[in-house]
Design brief:
Blueprint: H1 6-13, E1 26-32, E2 37-45, E3 51-59, H2 62-75, H3 80-83, H4 88-94, H5 103-121, E4 134-136, E5 141-142, H6 143-153, H7 158-165, H8 175-186, E6 188-189, E7 192-193, H9 205-225, E8 229-237, E9 240-247, H10 255-271, E10 276-279
Helix pairs in contact: 1-2, 2-5, 4-5, 5-7, 6-8, 9-10
Length: about 280
Amino acid sequence: MWDYTEKVKDHFLHPRNTGVIKDADAVGEVGNITCGDALKLTLKLDEDERIVDARFQTFGCASAIASSSALTEIIKGKTLAEAAKVTDSDIAEYLDGLPEQKMHCSVMGREALEAAIANYRGEERPPPHEEGEIVCTCFGVTDKVIERAIREHGLKTVDEVTHYCKAGGGCGSCHPQIEEILKQVAGITGGKKARKPERKRPLSNLQRMKLIEEAVEKEIRPLLQQDGGDIELVDVVDHTVLVSLRGSCRGCAMAGFTLAQTVAKKIEEAVGEPIEVKEVEP
């Protein structure tokens, strides 16, 4: 049972501003019913771009309904410029807090508001969950959405990412990719990604194999084992690494992505050379 505040309960049981404005000046739709949450926000504006009415339709849990209700109350009476500054944290604060596991509901409200403002401005841009490459196939969350959540809220763990954007909350096969994004964002300093010094001399085959073995044993295997997966280094032929996936990784629909985005990248970081990773039968 979630520990809801009295305000969350009130806005869930007695939501404000439900429905659709038929002659709306702005419409924002986010989420996906098949993934568990969806929100449609409609706005009516005056000649000064002030929001005179805001209404919503939400498919989701108590937190999603309460967050949508709170959002409409917050933005009514504001200009679009003022409303654009409203964050998901503002929505949660208005409700005297949300359970950590339900913060993604307030994020959905902010995304719907951004989509509505873009619609009014005539800006053509993909919905937040369609920008970038899909990382979490269970909930259709892209790398861009995950990166934004990490930066805006200082997230450090996969569980925290799940709380804010649902990524990783399904089968768990995307956890290695989320871990990688967490590390990449943490490695950004001064607006640029930290670079490893370039290797001055080519590696010998023996040196390359040793570095690859260390990367597999010390970095890649522990990462995959967190979600019940595993990997075995089968052979190294020049710049081609042959591996066998084990546990939950074997036969996973995201195995190709894991090999390219996690295994290959970590090995390339270790050896400082382009590497091709191929899966072979054990």
